[in-house]
Each structure stands twice: as C-alpha cells, then as structure tokens.
Amino acid sequence: MLKGGAFKTECHILSIMTDISDFLAEKAKSIDERILKYLPEKFDEKYLEWAFGKARYAYDVKTLQKALSGPIWDFLKRGGKRWRPAMFLLVAEAMGGDIEKMADFVVVPELAHNGSIMVDDIEDMSEMRRGKPCTHNIYGIDVAINAGNLMYFLPFLVFIKNRDSFEKDILIRAYETFSQEMIIIHLGQAMDIWWHKGNDEGLTEERYLQMCAYKTGTLARLSAKLAAILSGGTPEQIEKIGKMAEAIGVGFQIQDDILSASGKEFMEKKGFGDDITEGKRTLIVIHAMKTLEPEDGKRLKEILNMHTRDPKLMQEALDLLKKGGSVEYAREFAKKMVSEAWEEANPVIPDSSAKEKLKSFVDYLITRKI
Amino acid sequence: MLKGGAFKTECHILSIMTDISDFLAEKAKSIDERILKYLPEKFDEKYLEWAFGKARYAYDVKTLQKALSGPIWDFLKRGGKRWRPAMFLLVAEAMGGDIEKMADFVVVPELAHNGSIMVDDIEDMSEMRRGKPCTHNIYGIDVAINAGNLMYFLPFLVFIKNRDSFEKDILIRAYETFSQEMIIIHLGQAMDIWWHKGNDEGLTEERYLQMCAYKTGTLARLSAKLAAILSGGTPEQIEKIGKMAEAIGVGFQIQDDILSASGKEFMEKKGFGDDITEGKRTLIVIHAMKTLEPEDGKRLKEILNMHTRDPKLMQEALDLLKKGGSVEYAREFAKKMVSEAWEEANPVIPDSSAKEKLKSFVDYLITRKI
Prior knowledge:
2 copies of one chain form a homodimer.
Chain A: H1 5-38, H2 45-52, H3 61-76, H4 83-94, H5 99-102, H6 107-123, E1 128-129, E2 132-133, H7 135-139, H8 141-153, H9 155-161, H10 168-196, H11 205-214, H12 216-230, H13 235-262, H14 264-270, H15 274-278, H16 283-291, H17 294-306, H18 311-323, H19 326-345, H20 353-367
Antiparallel strand pairs in A: 1-2
C-alpha cells in the first residue's frame, strides 16, 4: 500500500519540486551576475561610457545611480523566482544552443518582467510588492515609471553588445521577437486595465485567455522563443516552443489566481486577496459568473466592484468562487492547456536530459503551492 | 534705408518662417496618414491581425480601441508641429535616400515623441497639454501610462513590416539606433526628475546640457540618424548629422525655456510659466544662479522650490532671470551651439535644394516665436 499510485505521484511531485527549486536557486546567482553586467548597482564613468557612450558634456554619475540603479536593484533584490531566464537557459540547452554565447540574454526577459511589475503596480496603485512598499511608494511615481521603462529598454543593450556573436538573420529575428512581444504586452495590459474599471460587458472566457496570452504569457513566450532563435531553431521549433511557453505563462497566472482564491498561506505571503480588492476578472471569476445562480453571480460582481478590503466581504467572494466549482475548473483548465501545449512541442525538441528537466520545470510551475 | 541690413534679415527670417510653416503644414497630413496605417483610429479584426498576428483565442476589438487608439488619437489630434518626422524626410532627401521606401519610418520619432510627452505629463503630474487636460486626467493614470508606453514600442512594427526593403546591415543599424536612443532618453529623464525634486547639489551647466542632449536631443537625433542610416549614409555622415540634429533638439528646448521665461503670448498659449511652478532648472536658471548676487540667487531658488502658482511670485522669478542677463545668455548659447553643429555637418551633406531647406529648417526652429 505504501507504494501505491497516489503516494508515488505525490512523492514524485515532491522530488521534482525540490530538484527544480534547487535548479532555480543555483541559476539565480549567475543570472543576477549577468544583470549586474548591464546594470551595476554602483555606477561609474567607465560603466556609463561602456553602456551609453562617451558623454558629449558630462555625466552626473550619482544622480543616474540614485534615480535608476537604486530603485531597480531595490526591487530586483526582493527576490522573484527568475524562472523566465531559467527557462531560457533550459530551452537553449535542449535546443543545443551555445550557452556561453547566449548567456547575456537571460537579462532580457528578467529585466523586462520586473519592469512590467513595477509599472503594473503604478497602474494598479498597489501598495506592497514582495513584502515591501511598491517602488512608487518609496521613490515617487515619476522615478518608478522612468525606472520601470528603462527596464523595458535596457535589454536592447544586450542585443547591441552581442551583435557580432550571431548571424544577421538570427539577430534580426531576435530583435523582431523582442520588439513584437513588447508591443503585445501592452495590448494585454490594455484589456486588463479596461476591464478592471468595470467595463467588462464584452468579457468572455476566450477574450480573457487572449489577455492572458498577451499579458502573462508574453515574457514566458519571449524567453523560450528567444532561446530557440538564438540556438538556430527552425521557424516550426520556434513557434511551437513559444506556444508551449505561452501556455506555461498563462498556466502560471491561473495558478496564481487559484492560490490567491484558496491558499491562505500564499495570500498572506504575497499580500494577496488583492484580486478581490482589485476586482480582477480572473478565469475563476468568469466561470463563476457563468455558472453561479443569478443572485450569487450578482452578489459576486457587487463585491468585486466595491474594491473593498473588508475581510468579511472578501471571504464571501472567495466562498462564492468555490461554490460553483470554479476554482477546480480553473485548475483542470490550466493542466489541460499546458499538457496539450507540451505534447505539441514535444516532437520538435530533440530528446536530452535538458529536455527532461524542461518537462519537470513545466510540471513544477503549474503544481507549485506558492 | 528700407533695404538696410536689419530689415532685410528680419524679412529673410519672416520668409523662412512662412516657407517652413507651409512645409510643415503640408507634410503633417501625409505623416498622419502613415501613423494611421500603423495605428488606425478605428480598430477592426483585420488591422489587429495585420499588426499583431492572429488571435490564439479572440480579440476584444472594442476594448483595445478604447484603451489604446482612443487616448492616443485624442492626443495626436491636438496638434504638435510634427517637425521631427519632417526633419527625417528632409535629411533623407538631402542624403539621396529612397523616400517612398523609407516613408513609413516617419512614424517612429513622432509616436515615440508623443508617447514621451504623455508619460512626462504623468511623471510631472501636469494638468494641461495643448489646451486640453492631460491624458491621465481624462483616462486615468493606468490607461495613460500603458498607452504612452505602447507609443514607445509600436514604432518597432514599422521595422518589422519594412524588413525586406533594406539590407540587413542597415536594418540592424536602424534597430540599434532606435533602441539605444530609447534607452538614453530614460537617462535624460532620470536626471531631470531627480533634480526637480530639489536634489540639485551637483547640477552644473555641463550636466544640464548632457541631460538636454539625452532628453530633448534624443528624438531629434534619432530622426536624423535614422534617415541617414536608411539612406545608406556612412558612419561619419550618420554621426555628424545626428550631432547636428541633437543640437537642434537642445536648441529647441532652450528656445522653449527662453519663450517661457519671456514671451507672454507663448506662456498663455502653452499654459506655461509652468517652468517656474515645476521648479525647472533650465540653462537660464543655472546661469542666473551662478551670476546673480547671492541674495537674489537665494530668492530665486526659494521661489523655484515653492512649486507655486502665485502670479506675483512667478513674475518675481522671471524678473530675476532677466536681471542677470541669463535669458540673453541662453539665446546666444543656443545660436552658437546650433550654428557650430551645422558647420560640422555641412561638409558631409551633399549640396542640394533639400539641403538648403534643411538649413532654413534649422534657422526656423531656433528663431521661432512660438
């Protein structure tokens, strides 16, 4: 009985979780070193000249450091899983890419991702992020917008500095991919913002998923596609691996929503439950609205539109989400989506131990508890 | 006497002003048509698919239009001189570039420029822009940040859609230039913001000019460099033409500061005098601080740090700026800077009527009264 199916699976998942947690922890340090190369904590003339060229007049080194590196590293040091650059490395390895040649590119999705959170937090007027006040609450909205936006553009420096390491076609393809994803992420955000404001008449499950694919899926898709492109992948490989990563990104978001709607520990740690306060239309909410009795649905919408922090009301909303089985629905949906996308990408990725790890990584991301 | 020197010069300037105003007005329409191609006022499935690819799930056309095209066109329609794309076209013509092939690229500096104002206005918490409330005061900070940021990235779509019209080296060079300028503009903004907040201990004229070169000079430099690159210019041509355009951009800013500090009509029209309220450290202010009697300098700083809208105090500050001859100093400085940069670029641009027009354009931008 001890070796029975359920127990074995649980054990297997636990071992995956440990492996991948270790893998992420191990990679995080070298990823941060690459970020430091492009954005050191302490600025000096030498760095500024290397990165941005000789000053025509004179740099104000201290001011630039205080207004850019300061808030950005205050943010980066708060943690984060660095799973997008880790996935970049795994895809590159699985595709037989030259890791040393490509390694600087881990900076691209990670900086862009953190920039997008910093900017998101301003747009949502959030208060806390990773256990500390949001950047705009420490440095002001002006500094936070500007620093966040620099994090969107600084990744291009990686392209410029590694210009000669890649064939021109590959480099152009990489530019196009990063640029296009950075356009698309603003479409996702546009939908999310507009719906938040209560303009959700036209919101359907399909449109919600499109928003996720464009918002949360974007930087995962970017990481994987960039790795596939720089490894010299074929268009078919790039496309399918990108789609798989997008599914992971969306699945990750749905998992966040699920944990936020059910996991007490997660809620406290992340300072969440915010989803209810923000009035977020998650997949769970959309499903609930469709399946709950009209009266319950109306009540749920009412609470979401209150933008309340009253724990009693928040609990009432959470109970309604569970009542219609919507949390369970979202969980199954995410699993199915990711496993289908994996099945599609599977044949185009050559077998290797890196591929095995990539698969574990996929499992980890959508079964994680925190 | 009627044909005497001063009168002739005045006449000459007037005729330049009329010519160039006509030129700008004539170009504005075709520039806007190009922008409409990449960002139509009315979205439909066809446009969205062309620009961003087929939706994996489903587009919410109306929401995207309302949250992106709506606020962006509300802003673009308020006017603006469109002088950056006009300069792009003049440089391209002077360099013998294939205008039809390059024409879509007018979108690049114009969208980025308007995006940067929209974002600037949020960062400065400005109230009015071009006679109407700022975008964030109409649509909310969230929509405004996101729309402004899209205007930074949408220009990349021009690169993607015109991929096959240029040699790979040229295309890569163009990507690098746009990316680098978009990084640099955030450095300029970082300095400006930080100093505004009263942290101006290290502020010198040299550093101020660096900020201008990075903030105001950037999109002018980008316009000219992009035109030179896409016309197949040599590195020397690209560099010198870029430097000339940067000087124009900086000169344009100094001219704005001068008009704001002296022209009543300009102040009313632009809703300015804001420079005093914002506590802006302009070239004029920096010069005044250095040359005024200590007591006067102290008083000027005091008023600038008040962020006041009291007309009496604002007038007092304006009087102090004039007292030390600082407005005159800035005027001379800008003229000298632009004419030196022109002299440097002059030998690398082949003679043509387009070059003549470019020269008139330079004169116009720094002698304009509004």
